[in-house]
Amino acid sequence: MKIFRNLLLILATVFVFELTFTNEAKAACTTDDDGAIELAQLAGDMCETTPDLYEIVIYKLYLCTSAPTGPTTTTTVDLDSGGCEEVFDNSSGSTASVSQGTSVDLGGSFTRPPNGTYTHGYAKLDNTFGITASVQFDGVATGQTGGSGIYCATVTGSGTSGENEVTNSSICSANEIEAGKFTESLTTFGDSFTATGSAENINNTTADITGYLIDTNGYLAESYSDVDRLDGLVTFADAVEMTDSVSGVTMSFNVGSGMGVMYDSGGDISLGSGPFQAIITAN
C-alpha cells in the first residue's frame, strides 16, 4: 500500500480528540448493487473501506497549553515546554480492537487535566495496526499469499510498510473466506525514509499536525529499523477549555475508512491499514 501517512489529531467538540492515521487522501471504495467492490477503480490507485476489526495500541495522550518542543535525533519531546498535562496513560500499551460504530474501554488511567485553556494535543502510540477484514469484488482477484476469486480476506500474519511493499496480507477464493488478523507496521512517512510528516489547515479547520516516528530512546528515528513508536502533535483549530463542569472522559472509535485496498506491484490484492478516529469525549 502507499506508505505516506498523515497523523491527524483535531478538536471536534468541547473536548474531543480525533486521532487519525491515514494515507494520502483516498476515495472510498465504490461498490456495485450487490455491495461488491469494483476492481476497475484499483487500476491506478487505492481506495478505502471498513474492516471487520481494527486494532491499535495507545500509550499516552496529553493536552498542552502551547506547542511542546518536538523530538530530535538526540533529544526526546519536551512536554514541559508546552505545559502538557497527561490525560491517558498505559506504559505497556492499551490495545483497542474495535469494529465500526462501537465503543471500547481502554485499560489504563484517565486523568482530568487542571482547568485552563489547551491549544495543542500530543499522543504516543505503537506504530502497528491490526486489520481483520473480508471483502467481495465484482470480478476475480488474486491473493498475495495465494488463491483467486471474487472473495478476498486478510491472513494471519504481519508485514511492514517501509523500505519494501507488503506482499503477504491477503488470500482470495471463489468462496467466502474467514479472515485472519494482519498486523502492519509503519516505518516511514515517505517513499524513502522520512521520520517526520506534517499537514496544515486540516479539512479547512486551521488545525495543523505533525507526526514523528520515534526510536527506543524516545528520539526521532534515523532509519527504518530504528522505528519503535509513533507520536503526533496537533495545533487545535479551537482551544480546549477545561472548566469545573467537566468531570470525566470516554473513548469511542470510527473505523469507517480503516482499510486500504489496492493492487501491489505484481497485480495481487493488498489489504492494509487506513484512517481511523479515536475519540475522547468529556462528560
Task: Give a description of the structure.
There is one protein chain. The protein has 283 residues and is mainly beta. The protein has a domain of 196 residues. The chain is 0% helix and 49% strand. It has no helices and 20 strands. Strands 4, 5, 6, 7, 8, 11, 13, 14, 15 and 16 form a ten-stranded mixed sheet that branches. It has a four-stranded antiparallel sheet with strand order 1-2-20-17, with no helix packed on it. A hairpin with a 5-residue loop joins β18 and β19. The N terminus is likely disordered.
List keywords for this structure.
mainly beta; 20 strands; 49% strand; disordered N terminus
Topology at a glance:
Layout: E1 5-11, E2 16-23, E3 47-49, E4 53-64, E5 85-98, E6 109-110, E7 116-125, E8 128-132, E9 134-142, E10 148-154, E11 157-161, E12 170-173, E13 181-186, E14 196-199, E15 208-214, E16 229-242, E17 249-254, E18 259-263, E19 269-273, E20 277-282
Parallel strand pairs: 11-13
Antiparallel strand pairs: 1-2, 2-20, 3-18, 4-5, 4-7, 4-8, 5-6, 7-16, 8-13, 9-10, 10-12, 14-15, 15-16, 17-20, 18-19
> Percent range for helical residues?
under 10%
- Major pleated sheet: 10 strands, mixed
Q: N- to C-terminal separation? A: 38 Å
Shape: elongated
* Number of DSSP strand runs: 20
**How would you spell out the order of helices and strands?**
EEEEEEEEEEEEEEEEEEEE
- Output the radius of gyration: 19 Å
The share of residues in extended strands comes to: over 45%
Q: How confident overall, as mean pLDDT?
A: 80
Indicate the structural class.
mainly beta
